[in-house]
Structure formats: C-alpha cells, structure tokens
TrEMBL record:
Pfam families: Hen1_L, Methyltransf_23. Residues 1-242 form the Hen1 N-terminal domain. Its cofactor is Mg(2+). Its EC number is 2.1.1.386. NCBIfam families: bacter_Hen1. Belongs to the methyltransferase superfamily. HEN1 family. GO terms for molecular function: metal ion binding; RNA binding; small RNA 2'-O-methyltransferase activity. InterPro entries: 3'-RNA_MeTfrase_Hen1_bac, Hen1, Hen1_N, Hen1_N_sf, SAM-dependent_MTases_sf. This is Small RNA 2'-O-methyltransferase. It catalyses: small RNA 3'-end nucleotide + S-adenosyl-L-methionine = small RNA 3'-end 2'-O-methylnucleotide + S-adenosyl-L-homocysteine + H(+). Keywords: Magnesium, Metal-binding, Methyltransferase, RNA-binding, RNA-mediated gene silencing, S-adenosyl-L-methionine, Transferase. GO terms for biological process: regulatory ncRNA-mediated gene silencing; RNA methylation.
C-alpha cells in the first residue's frame, strides 16, 4: 500500500519541514497490522516527493480479525485486498507517522504550515467501492483536480467488467494539513470498510477532522454513514452535530463583532470578572472537584478553573471546534506539565443531545448560554443537563433584562447581544428555574451578580441548582435529546 506526496514549491525540500521528516533517511515504525515506512524517492530544490509505504501482515490481520467481513470463505482472512488497496490502515498510518503535519504544526517553519503550496497526492491502488464517479464526487467539491485510471478485471474476459480498484491522483494548491485531512477521512469512505471497531470516539474524530469542510460537503450524509460503518445511532448523532455546526458557521464569522458589542455595554461595570468570581465562589463553596463548563467558548471560565487546584477534573464543551482550538491556544494546553494537562479536557458537542461524556461530574457551569437557545433547544438542553448528565450542582447565569435601561449605550428594547433569543426579567428567570428544579428533582436558589439598581436588580442573575432527594422525574418526550 503506497501514498506519495509531491510538491514543486520553491524550495521543494520545505516539504521535509512540514512533515518533520528528514529527506536523508528512511523512518520505519511497527504498527499493529505491520510496518510503515517513510522515505523520499526524490528531494531537490525543484521537486520533492515523500512516500508512505505500508507492509501489511496478512497473518497478523487474520489473527486479530481486522478487516474481515466473514463472507469470503475460510481463506478470506488470509487472501484479500487489505495489504494492497488503500483503506483505513492508510488513515491510521497518516495519523501516526504524519501527526504533526495532520495537526497543522511545524515547529521550525510555523508560517509554512499555514501556506497553500502546490501538492500532488498519488495512490496507485484505491478500493473505490462506488466507482470512479464516487471518487470525483468526494474530492472535486474540495477543489482537487482528479485523475483516475482503472482496468478490466481480466482482459481475456471483458464481460467481467471493470475492476473496483483505481489509481488516484489529486492535485491542488492547498495546505498540506488540508490534503492529509481529506485523505484521512475519505480513503476509508471510498473503501467502505474499517478494520477496527467504530464507537463514540470515531464520531469525535470525524467531527474534528471534518471541521471547516464536511458540514458543507454535498456528499456529507454518505461520508458520515460510510465513515461510521453505517451504525445508525452514531450516524444520526454526527449528522445532527454537523448540522448544528453548519447553521452556526455564518454566525461565528460575526461572533467576535457581536461579543465586542456586548462587552462594550458591560465593560464599565467589570461584569465579566464579577461573573467569573461569582461562579467560582459557588463551585468552591459546594466543594466540587469534577466540573463541567458547558458552552465554554474560547475558555474564559476554564482559565480560572485550571488555575485553582481544587478542581481535579475539568471538561469544557462547545459546539464550535474553532472556539475550542482558540481555547486550547489561550490556555497553552500544549505547554502545560503532564499532570496539569491531565486535569482538563476540551470536547466538541451539542447541548441538544444526550452525551455520556457529561456523566459523573459534581457540578456544571452554564455561563451566559441559555439566552442563545430558542424554545425547542432550551427544552432539550434541560433534559441533557438535569435528566441525563445530572450533576449534584448546576450554576446558570443569564442577563437580567430589567437592568438594560441602566446601560446608556444600549438602545431601548435592544438585547445586549444580537444572537440572544431572549433576555428574561427576574420573575421570568425564577419561574423557569423553579419549574426545571421541580421537574427534575432539584432545589434552586438565586444570587444577583453586579451592582444592583433600585427596583431593577443586578445586571446578571444566577440560579444555583442542587440535587435534592430522589424523586420521580416529570418529563415529556423530546426527540432531540
């Protein structure tokens, strides 16, 4: 199994910096299914080519039952196309051998990793189960020029038809990270098979690698279904989250401007710092050690949680992978000592869907999030947090609309943030929180945040939910959760 990558970028040997691989030596690594080799057939200033070659051990595959569909008779585990035709083994090798390039990192030349350069990827044999048309439908929307060649199964018997295997060449001026990401996801999709068990982790992997291109791909449904081996529940979850991300994408482009508008309104009061301090005070007061930050955005609360050693396990979740990447950079997670890094995890996920990763935490913080949800999504969120995740304590903050008249720069009747679906009065918030607490077996108390104005209250209102004695949870069917 072979993949080659070539460039005519000047100097072409910059490819070595991007891949973190020295053109002067071959690198070999043992994998569970055989050996992977990286070497450079040619490396000059004008043209540089790197090859990733896999030697797949058929006996090891048979013993481990990797990639065996069980429908080819007793010899099928030993005689098959796994060692020769590009498949999910190649994706695993890309992830292991070219991890830095796949992640878009270049220690010596960081600016180069963000540069689009002319690249050509060649795979001599791809199991294109779906024909040449499918190959084009997968790669051409991503901007690649696609060159394919195939052959008859046997020239002596033309009636047998064309082989399901093709030789593939892709060319484009693109970042190396993007090319590797597209190959990583789409090669197993073409093969329509995976050699390992597909579970929840594969959904996260697909969403991570598909960020920025998969939500808008015309073959999104097919890609997700095949990548997840047609497991219905996982496929539905991944598609739902991709749809949520796709809907949010145009808004995210304006999010920074909108956030600046909201901060401009609230900044004279130092309200952000007061919110963080109030939430941290409650978390410390309930002695929470395992904490969720739901809708964590770019990591504003996470920074405070990470600085406090009381919090031993911190999970930040947001629907936007881009926001999580920003949070990762701002928190400098890659530079933290191993013990510190182990305390925090950032995951992409929607607050509209049940997620087992949210289970087992003592407290959850939901800071300035619920006002961004319309009524159906708010109802789903209630179940996700209070019925399924069910932390012992939950802290929710939201604007107090009564206080808006105090802000001189906020026009009458306008919300603080253009993405807010509502801004509640104190009575409305207390009514909602009381209903939620009664329905799911919690008690709730309220605390103002910020300077209070006569008859208007404070600019931010906070509800602190605590799990009471077990009761019958009154719920109604919710399709989203």
């Amino acid at each position: 199994m072979l993949l080659t990558l070539s460039t005519t970028h000047k100097p072409a040997t910059d490819l070595g910096f991007l891949l973190h691989k020295n053109p002067a030596r071959m690198q070999t690594e043992e994998l569970s299914f055989g050996k992977a080799h990286i070497f450079y057939p040619e490396a000059s200033e004008e043209l540089c080519t790197v090859a990733l070659m896999l030697e797949v051990d058929s006996i090891a595959l048979a013993r481990g039952r990797h990639g065996s569909s069980g429908d080819g008779g007793p010899l099928q585990p030993y005689v098959n196309d796994r060692p020769y035709a590009a498949n999910s083994f190649l994706s695993v090798a890309i992830g292991r051998m070219l991890a830095s390039a796949l992640g878009g990192r270049s220690k010596d030349r960081p600016e180069l990793a963000e540069t689009a350069i002319p690249l050509i990827a060649r795979i001599p044999c791809v199991a294109a189960r779906g024909g040449e048309d499918l190959v084009r439908r997968l790669f051409e929307p991503l901007g690649y020029a696609v060159v394919l060649s195939s052959a008859l199964l046997d020239e002596r018997f033309p009636d047998w038809g064309t082989s399901p295997y093709v030789s593939l060449e892709l060319s484009a001026t693109v970042r190396l990270q993007d090319l590797l990401t597209h190959l990583y996801v789409l090669i197993p999709v073409l093969d329509n098979e995976k050699h390992y068990w597909v579970g929840d982790d594969e959904v996260e992997k697909l969403l991570k690698r598909g960020e920025g291109w998969l939500p808008s791909h015309p073959e999104k449904d097919l890609i997700v279904s095949r990548y997840l081996k047609r497991q219905g529940e996982l496929t539905r979850e991944a598609l739902a989250r991709l749809i949520a991300e796709d809907v949010a994408e145009p808004e995210e482009q304006k999010e920074q401007v909108r956030d600046e508008e909201e901060q401009k309104v609230e900044r004279p009061l130092g309200l952000h710092e007061q919110r963080m301090g109030a939430v941290l005070s409650v978390l410390r007061g309930v002695s929470a050690k395992r904490v969720l930050d739901l809708g964590c955005g770019e990591g504003k609360l996470l920074r405070y949680l990470l600085a406090d050693q009381q919090f031993e396990a911190i999970l930040g979740m947001d629907v936007s992978w881009r926001s999580l990447e920003i949070a990762k950079d701002r928190l400098k997670l890659d530079q933290l000592p191993e013990r510190q890094r182990a305390r925090i995890e950032l995951v992409q996920g929607s607050l509209m869907y049940r997620d087992q990763r949210l289970n087992g935490f003592e407290a959850a913080a939901v800071v300035e999030v619920i006002e961004h949800l319309d009524a159906p999504r708010l109802a789903s969120f209630e179940r996700v947090l209070f019925e399924f995740a069910r932390p012992s304590h939950a802290i929710i903050t939201t604007p107090n609309s009564e206080y808006n008249t105090v802000f001189e720069t906020l026009p009458a009747g306008q919300f603080r943030h253009r993405d807010h679906r509502f801004e509640w009065t104190r009575a409305e918030f207390e009514q909602w929180a009381g209903d939620v607490a009664a329905r799911f077996g919690y008690t709730v108390r309220f605390q103002p945040i910020g300077p209070e104005a006569p008859a208007l209250g404070a600019p931010t209102q906070m509800a602190i939910f605590s799990l009471s004695a077990p009761t019958d949870i009154q719920t109604e069917p919710q399709t989203n959760a």
